[in-house]
Amino acid sequence: RMLVFVGLPHLVQNWLSDPKIVLTTVALVHSWKGFGWGFLIFLAGLQTIPKELYEAAHVDGASAWDCFKKITIPLMVPVIVLVSILTVLGTMQAFALILGLVGGEFAGHTSVPVLRILAVMRDSSRFGYACAQGISFGVILVTISFIQYRFSKRYREE
What is the per-residue pLDDT across 21-60, written as a single tens digit (0 to 9) for each? Predict the structure, then answer.
């Protein structure tokens, strides 16, 4: 009804029962769910940057773009890394949202690594194999986080 009310009747459909768009729908809900905390962390990071740095840059003749590029971005790198690592880790663990929204239906269309591990454990009772997959998945997540951290460390040193 809301979509018709705002003039978008062509978007009226059952978003969670169409296998073609269910993963996109879940991704949008997950993005919206995670937007708030990321925004707050970025805002807190921006508030830690001393205003004197911007004032000194303006006195030296720096433009707004120069201030953003030479002050804001370098000082926000730790915050950007934190948010990106937490976002990647949170995204890889979106199984609870998927189970809550679609109830485990649409196998293959809403499949994420954690749901695949759960399916191996539940459907075939291969607990050892599921544990090995879980450990491998954890190692992959730690590796991705470490790569992001190293990349940010290299960027900060420049």
Answer: 887 888 888 888 888 888 999 999 999 999 999 999 999 9
C-alpha dihedral (99, 115, 146, 79), degrees to nearest 10: -10
- The token pair at 80 is 């950007």
CA distance 141 to 138: 5
User: What pTM was estimated for this model as a whole?
Assistant: 0.65
Sorted by where each starts, the structural domains of the chain and their CATH numbers stand as: 2-157 (1.10.3720.10)
How far apart are the C-alpha atoms of 157 and 134, rounded to whole Å?
35
